[in-house]
Structures are given as C-alpha cells and as structure tokens.
Design goal:
Structural class: alpha+beta
Helix content: 40-55%
Number of helices: 12
Order of helices and strands: EEHHEEEHEEEHEEHHHHHHHEH
CATH architecture of the largest domain: Orthogonal Bundle
Largest sheet: 5 strands, antiparallel
Low-confidence stretches: none
Number of domains: 3
Mean pLDDT: 89
CATH topology of the largest domain: Trigger factor, domain 2
CATH superfamily of the largest domain: Trigger factor, C-terminal domain
Radius of gyration: 34 Å
Distance between the termini: 56 Å
CATH class of the largest domain: Mainly Alpha
Strand content: 15-25%
C-alpha cells in the first residue's frame, strides 16, 4: 500500500514529483479519525460517545478526509524526496490532480532543489596583497586628526575669518514671494566647509551680535521645490563667532588620555594604525577573493533562496527606517533593488558551504576566544562584557559566524595565487574604503 512517485525536471533547479497515494490509505485514515471522534462526540439525541459511525461520517466525513489528505500529502512528499534523495530549497506547492472518493489520490509537488556545488580551480584566482609600513608621517597625521576631533570652539570678538564657526539666526524671503521660508532658524556654518546657502564669503568679516542683509540664490535642491534656484534675501543676526582651539599635547592632556608620555601616545597610535592596516588588507583580499570565486563559479541558485534574502534585506531596511523615523509609514521597496546583491549573497553561501565541506572546517574555539577578548577589550569592563557575550545567544552566534568566515577565507586563500604590492598606509585605507562603498 505504498505510494508511487514520478520525478520530472523543470527549469534550472525546479523539480516536479507526481505522487499517487492509494485510496485505501486515505479511507483507513478517515476511519481511524471517525472511530477516535466517536469516543467523545456529542450530538443532540445521542448519549456522549454513542453517536453512530454513519452519522459521524455524514457530518464530519468531508472535513476529516481533508485533514487526512493534507497529512498524507505532506508525508507522501517527505517519503518521495527521501526515496529520490532530493534536498528541497524551500517548501513545495501542492496541486491536487485527482481527489475523488474511491479513487487513488493523485497530486503534484513543485519545488526547487539545493544545487550541488563544488569549489572551482582556485589557482585561477590571482590576487594582489598590499604591503605597507606605518611611517612617522602616518602617526603625525593620525595624531593631528585625533587632536582636531578633540578641539573645542571658543567665542571671539574679532571679525570672522576662514576656519571660524559662525552661528546665526535668520529669516529668509524669496524675491516676489510673500511668505518667508524660515523664521529665526538657527544655523551654524564653519567658514570654508560645505553649508546650505553657500554663506562662506558672505559671513567673512562679520562679528558677534551684528545684523546683516544678505542676497543669495537658493540651492537647486531646496525644499519646497518651487523656490529652488530662486534669488532670496536673508535677514541675518550673528549669534556667535568662534575659533577652533586644538588641544596641546602637554602633561595635562597626556594624563587625560592615560598616557605617561608622548612616546607612549605615539606607540598607541602606531598600534591602532597597524590594526587598521591589517584589517584593510584582509578586507581587500576577502572582497576580491569572493569576486574572483563568483566569476569562475557557474551554477544556478534557487529562486526561493534569493527571495528569502530579498525579504531579509527589506526587513532590515524597514527596521532601520522605523528606528530613525518613528511611526511614519515605511514605503514598499521593489524587489528589483535587491536582486543582484541577494543573488550574490546566496551564491557565496553555497560556495562557503562547499568550502566547509572540502576543507573540513569546524569552529576554531581558540580563534573564537581571541575574537571575544578583542571585542571585550574595547570596553571599560572587559570581564562583564565577556560574560554578556557568552550569555547572549544571538550575539555569540554572530561572532561564531564571523570566525568561521575567517577560517573559510584563510582556507581559500591558501590555494589562490597572491602577489604582493608595495603601497602606503593612506593608499591602502583609501582603496579599502572604496571596496566597501562598491559593495554597499
């Protein structure tokens, strides 16, 4: 009384299983359910548990047959894919072909299968590995950036000049337009940096508490759009002129950042630059390794997997918009926006699985511990953070996945051809940033 199965291939990874289930199996399933129901059934005119089977069959037979049929189709599908040694990529769709009492049930299950993926010849991939030294000039530049980030703005009574921060309040009225587009709206401008209305030249020479009338042209992307590019007049009141005060590297500053002397500070900066450099080099290798791997790997991926990845990306964007935009309605984004990147991600997932199988990769517990300690060391209470990371299942799984990915990359890189390329720290960081921009 077993099922009969006929397998046929559709387009790409699509498969169809035509499955026939003997009518006897369905009828036995219905009979079993009716017998069970009869033990507790209550109906007017009958004592509990004494309702005749024929009455129950007439009242509940169709419903019970549908329940048995659903279960039999699921069980039949599992039995069929097990017999045919198929791995579905997602849930099947069922289409009943024959469903008549007294006849065998005939249905078609349509689904996609997981592709059989093996790694290509990795020696065909040729990569460049950046090699750079951390120079004294790199340390000087990073120190200058650090000090500039710690700078404070101090009010001055002199006239504003390039590099000063000018805070104004203004009202604006487009020529020939009755309504002002802003009223007493505060605006801070650093002279020489991009700003709305391009006020750099107009604000040079102004002093605190002064009032000025400025003739400007509204930006082309101004909102409302009907005012974009129109001439306008600003009534400006200067609230403050301030100059940038960059901290000096003296004993007080060194104590504040917990360094005993300038040499220790420079060493810390050098260590951070070295870490940045190593990460940038590794990210560049990984990015171009994956691009090379995708280029020489030819296989189709299940559409259902791509659709799942698209849905995941859309959910992430919606969550971010919800977080930053409050309760505003989230626009429905078209799937086409995500198809290319989602397909790429799904392909890399299958290739990563192939690498895990070929290289017999398992999570390296020592590397996991190193990564946990590295993350925890960035906080004031490393031990507490370590404990939190170990107990937070979601975070721990993410970190485990990162470590396994590093192991996969290392294994793949062991078989590709790598040529070293001499470069500078600045060039490496700039190129790495470009890689990230292209990937996003």
């Amino acid at each position: 009384m077993g099922i009969s199965v006929n397998l046929s291939k559709g387009k790409d990874l699509e498969r169809e299983l035509r499955i026939t289930i003997p009518d006897q199996k369905i009828e036995e399933g219905v009979a079993t359910r009716i017998n069970k129901l009869s033990q507790t059934a209550k109906m007017d005119g009958y004592r509990p548990g004494k309702v005749p089977l024929a009455v129950l069959q007439k009242r509940y037979g169709a419903q019970l047959r549908n329940e048995v049929l659903d279960e039999a189709m699921r069980d039949g599908f599992i039995e069929a894919i097990t017999a045919e040694k198929l791995q579905p990529a997602g849930a099947p769709t069922f289409e009943l072909k024959t469903n008549i009492a007294g006849k065998d049930v005939d249905f078609v299950a349509t689904f996609e299968v997981i592709p059989e993926v093996s790694l290509p010849d990795l020696s065909k991939i040729k990569l460049e590995k950046w090699v750079a030294d951390i120079t004294e000039a790199d340390i000087d530049h990073e120190l200058d950036t650090l000090l500039k980030n710690l700078a404070k703005w101090e009010p001055v009574t002199r006239a504003a000049k390039a590099g000063d921060q000018v805070t104004i309040k203004y009202t604006g009225e487009p020529d020939g337009h009755a309504s002002p587009f802003a009223e007493d709206k505060p605006l801070t401008v650093v002279l020489g940096q991009p700003a709305i209305f391009d006020l750099h030249e107009s604000l040079k020479g102004v002093k605190s508490t002064e009032s000025h009338e400025l003739n400007i042209t509204l930006p082309k992307d101004f909102n409302p759009a009907d005012l974009a590019g129109k001439p306008a007049t600003l009534q400006v009141k200067v609230e403050e002129v301030a100059e940038e005060k960059i901290p000096e590297v003296n004993d007080e500053f060194l104590k504040l950042i917990q360094c005993k002397d300038l040499a220790e500070l420079r060493q810390k900066v050098a260590d951070r630059l070295k870490q940045n450099l190593e990460q940038a080099v590794q990210n560049h290798l990984k990015t171009h390794l994956f691009e090379g791997l995708l280029k020489i790997s030819k296989f189709n991926v299940p559409n259902v997997s791509v659709q799942e990845e698209i849905a995941h990306r859309k959910q992430q964007i919606a969550a971010n918009l919800q977080q930053h935009g409050g309760q505003q309605a989230i626009p429905e984004l078209p799937d086409d926006m995500f198809v290319e990147q989602s397909t790429r991600q799904v392909k890399l997932g299958f290739l990563s699985s192939a690498a895990i199988k070929e290289f017999e990769i398992k999570l390296d517990q020592e590397k996991l511990e190193e990564r946990l300690q590295q993350i925890a060391s960035m906080y004031n209470d490393p031990e507490s953070v370590m404990q939190t990371l170990r107990q937070d299942r979601g975070q721990l799984q993410q970190i485990q996945s990162m470590v396994v990915e590093e192991q996969i990359v290392a294994a793949l890189l062991s078989r590709v051809k790598i040529k070293e390329k001499k470069s500078s720290y600045e060039e490496v960081i700039s190129a790495s940033q470009k890689d990230q921009n292209n990937a996003s």
